[in-house]
Write a structure and sequence with these properties.
alpha+beta; six-stranded mixed β-barrel; two-stranded antiparallel ribbon; 12 strands; transmembrane transporter activity; membrane
Length: 405
């Protein structure tokens, strides 16, 4: 039998049962749309995380107190980093460009009758260099501010707007933990990075933070939340990581396990990439189950069709149709159902991905690989799950088929 004639006949048969054909395709449509949308979401999450880390600054290293095991299992990290460690890194590690010690605390910030709780970051002038974060108005903290424990503050743009509205904050006085601070600047817009909104934060000298806000100095110096370091170039990141580790091991008299960890931006990004890739694979696998269910639906409907069309099959075989002709006929019907469902599902999935990109921060994109895979799998499902009913139809005895009609 001519293949083109088989396709025409299969199309007419499917169009004659529009509702059943549509319901049969529904599983394939949902499966394809789910796979494309889930892969798009996963890839969007990967791009979002990459953008978050890139916005932290270039060639950045993070020195965090506690070893990796403590960071995974402990909420309250040990206080093993001090301000003197940051100063030693700045003066003794030649591959380092800038060092920004950071001491964090969430405190009440007040201007007249306006109150809000915000993150207070105690740091030094290198913070703006390491984190690529400059003042929009006024200035940032200076070395003199740190040396003299000056009570000055630079506000994030969101915090400044919430406290002052349209008024210029520079030169005004705010109170942090009921201590008066002079506003010397407002930072440019940075956005939220890894859950921390730097636009809603206030920046003061790290020495002032330790002596006036936190009020807790260890016998070894000013405790730090962590240290951010900028290497001189991308090529020197690994060397800086190695030199910082050796320096801190000497300073902390460590002979066995480190009480700190030095993580490069690349290391953290690779970990995040592994997590998001696994998430994408898991989402695609879950969505793929619906494709399997859709294939089973195609097989069930085709089996019902074989039962209903027993007389037709017997008549066609009686007038000369071979087993291969009948087999191809029913396989083509199954493939048409799956392919049509795949195309409609692709359109629905692409539309869903585009909507996700509009209404969420994820930079969701349409993956050509996911589309090709989903459509290919749906077409393959038509062949695989169409074989059983097609073989059953082809093996019917024409005499028995005509008698049972």
């Amino acid at each position: 039998m001519d293949i083109l004639e088989s396709v025409k006949m299969a199309s007419k048969t499917l169009l004659a049962n529009k509702l059943r054909s549509t319901l049969t395709m529904l599983g394939i449509i949902i499966g394809n749309a789910s796979v494309i949308a889930m892969v798009g979401i996963g890839e969007g999450a990967q791009r979002f995380v990459s953008g978050q880390f890139e916005s932290l600054g270039t060639n950045v290293l993070f020195i965090v107190p506690g070893n990796r095991d403590a960071q995974r299992t402990t909420v309250d990290l040990p206080k093993t980093l001090v301000l003197e460690d940051a100063e030693a890194i700045a003066t003794q590690v030649p591959t380092v460009g800038a060092v920004a010690p950071q001491l964090h605390s969430r405190e009440l910030v007040t201007y007249r009758n306006r109150n809000t709780y915000s993150l207070i970051v105690g740091t030094n002038p290198d913070f703006s260099v390491v984190r690529s974060f400059d003042a929009q108005r006024g200035r940032f903290i200076t070395d003199l501010d740190v040396k003299r424990n000056n009570q000055v503050v630079t506000l994030g743009v969101d915090l400044a707007e919430r406290l002052f509205g349209n008024q210029d904050p520079v030169g005004q006085q705010v109170r942090i933990r009921n201590i008066s601070f002079l506003v010397v600047g407002v930072m440019e817009e940075k956005g939220s990075v890894l859950g921390t909104n730097y636009d809603d934060s206030a920046y003061i000298p790290v020495t002032t933070m330790a002596s006036r806000i936190i009020g807790e100095n260890s016998p070894y110096g000013v405790n730090l939340t962590f240290i951010s370091v900028s290497a001189q170039s991308e090529a020197s990141v690994d060397a800086a990581q190695f030199q910082i580790t050796n320096l801190l091991r000497l300073r902390h008299n460590i002979t066995r396990e480190d009480d700190f960890s030095v993580q490069s931006q690349k290391d953290v990004l690779e970990i995040a990439g592994t997590v998001t890739s696994a998430l994408t694979l898991m989402l695609a696998a879950i969505a793929g189950i619906s494709l399997l269910v859709g294939g089973i639906g195609v097989m069930n409907i085709m089996l019902v069709s074989v039962t209903e069309r027993t007389q037709e099959i017997g008549l066609r075989k009686a007038i000369g149709a071979t087993q291969d002709d009948i087999l191809i006929q029913f396989l083509i019907e199954a493939v048409i159902l799956s392919a049509a469902g795949g195309v409609l599902g692709t359109v629905l999935g692409v539309g869903g991905v585009l909507l996700i990109g509009v209404f969420t921060p994820f930079q969701a994109g349409v993956s050509p690989v996911a589309i090709a895979l989903a459509v290919g799998v749906s077409g393959g499902i038509g062949i695989i799950f169409g074989v059983v009913p097609a073989r059953r139809a082809a093996q019917l005895d024409p005499i028995v088929a005509l008698r049972s009609a």
